Amino acid sequence: MAPRLRTAHTADLEPAELRAEETTLKKFGFVPQSFDLKKNTIDLLTERFAAQRDASPLHAQVHDDWVIVTRYSRPRPERFDRDITVFRRVDDAWRRTDEHHRNVLFEADRAIAILREEGVDASVRPAFGEETLPEGLVVLAGVRR
Q: What is the pLDDT of residue 26?
């Protein structure tokens, strides 16, 4: 993948965060042991997706056995970040998990052009299957030639 995409995603990750993500992917068998996360990962969201969301308010959903709280931020014009806290009821207690998602805003047409330059037959799809994605969120699918 061209460095012009790669750098934006990994530049903000602390080395310990990057190692933790890579280790988790390897432990679950999602990637081979030789996989280098820094060289191979990018999150892309379109500007249209980010524009649909107000970066200031809190979003929360409360259910009988789980709660999710999402906080949005725009630390830079090309970034859209989400801090997600989930509480799940486990027997008589609650279990908490926290995630931080750093997403690079990038237009799908430009991403497709770069993928094609890199030898990937790529296309934009409206969804993974029959589901409806939020406005501005698209699926990039491709196969290396």
A: 78
